[in-house]
Amino acid sequence: MFAERVLNKTTNVKLHTFSGGLSGILYLFLLIRQEGFIHIDLNKFEDPLEKYLVKSMKNDFRSKNYDFMHGALGVELYFLKKGNIEIIKDVIDFLYNNAEKDYDRKVFKWKSVLSSKTNEVGYNIALSHGMAGIVLFLCRVIRTGYVDSKVLEMLNGSLNYLMSQEINDSLYGCLFPSQSIENSQPITGSRLAWCYGDIGIGYSIWYSGKTINDKNLEKKGLSILLNSSKRRSFSETHVFDAGICHGSAGLAMVFRRMYLETNNNDFMLTTKYWVEHSLSQAKYGNGLAGYKTFFIDNWIDDYSLITGISGIGLMYMSFLKNDKQQWDEIFLL
What we know:
A hairpin with a 2-residue loop joins strand 5 (293-295) and strand 6 (298-300). Strands 1-2 form a two-stranded antiparallel sheet. The protein has 14 helices and six strands. The chain is mainly alpha-helical. Helices cover 52% and strands 6% of the residues. It starts with a helix and ends in a 12-residue tail after the last helix.
């Protein structure tokens, strides 16, 4: 079987990360088995691979790397999907013990490396690498049925921190900056994307409200997302390409998820806009299916799920089939 051949090759995978390594591969197999696409016994593969993942995750603990895409939380998503309570407890303790706690403001926050080039450390508030991702991870923990005082305290504290970052929409063209206003860099507006800015923060606030049955949080998150749905021009969005991470396919994915959840037609109209925008990006005669990805000032061929044509195609298939888009859980939706 193809699935078994892929699993046999996992010993050659050099990374443990969710976005480009072993934990993401194993999570994908759990997901497609759950959806009935494959029927395969993973037990004979899991033990040695999971020992490697646990070791790698502990290394991330030591370096305080909680990143969803490239660190401890991405690995933990795999164990969370398996329902491994003991490892979930370890991660909760790690997050709690390494949080900066401001009990007067009821705030929890975590520092991380903002730039691998400069090793600058600060507060990342984004979904892809920062605190919006932590919020969504904690919501998933709660939805597994594991709820204790630490989880709820961290969820409320990190939400308070995210909402304290709101900036003047009229001045900056968005409601949240690319990084925390507490960092040393000047405050700048954020692009419209799955990875950074208003959409990820708005979704994390809305989903938290849904998870803990807080209507005020739901209303706040919905307001942020509806505000984002009105941003269309390049000067308002800075959408360069069509990939999931920071492009138009990712916007179609998020707004369609919100339509599926709320049945609000504004989200469907916005989804259709970004689907059409994605189609318009298939304009390169030497590209992959007409597409190229903007990467460090260059346009490149990109097959990947996160930034390339695999993700773009997946978005199109769900839109055309009008399915429930279950696959978007790998993007924390």
